[in-house]
Design goal:
Largest sheet: 6 strands, mixed
Number of strands: 12
Number of domains: 2
Structural class: alpha/beta
CATH topology of the largest domain: Rossmann fold
Distance between the termini: 35 Å
Strand content: 15-25%
Number of helices: 10
CATH superfamily of the largest domain: NAD(P)-binding Rossmann-like Domain
Shape: globular
CATH class of the largest domain: Alpha Beta
Length: 273
Amino acid sequence: MKKKFGIIGKPIKHSLSPVLHKYWFKKYGINADYEIIEANDKELPEIIKKIKQGDYAGINVTLPFKQKIINHIDKIVNDAELTGSVNTVLLNNNKAVIGENTDVYGLQAAYLKEIENNFNKKALVIGAGGVSPSVILSIKKSGIKNISITNRTDEKCIFLKKKFNFLSIIPWVDFKSEIKNFDIIINATSLGLKNGDDFNFNFANTKNEVIYIDTVYNPLETKTFKYLKEEGRKVFNGLDMFIYQGQKSFYLWNKVNPEIDDGLVELLNSKLK
């Protein structure tokens, strides 16, 4: 019997998760399919019901449901519990629907080598949405203690500070002038996403040695990414994070740790051109 997986979100057409997982299904001879599930809030209970019934063997979760889905599943564990953010859902041996978080692992696996041992560095997280708690926890796990956050609305920052009391909040109106003080900047917003808005200013006053990480991977190079790259800054897009979080999701579902080979990377890059 063919197993069925999917990703739930809205908008979701930009996702490369089907390409990623179908590549691994084929490589490891797993009889499974992976589909896009564009849904609204009211449809979440029905989707979870389908997991309980075995219609889905597991799903990934993206914006805007990483927090919302928690109210509909039986239990959150590990990094999902620490962040209050779920991006992977599966059914355990006791038929309970479990929420996991593989975004934290994805960021660490992709970029940790760039920020490890930088305990005295200052990090700025831009955005307080669905992926932000995972970004914050990843940075903290790397050993960096000085972490700030900024967002267009302060309410979300205040909410995150209740969970991560070590955070400093930078008002959005001060963000542009403050970026010069940071060694690591991570864009955890959807700004720059294909066919979407981008930052309405450049990052000219960042440090020359700044590390800029964009969680966006479609397009591979956002306007801000291109600008900082041309200015000689060290920049990373969100593709590696996407691949590594998918790798861990795949393992949780199938108990197979899939290889990230050149064929996969070339395939994903070809889809983003």
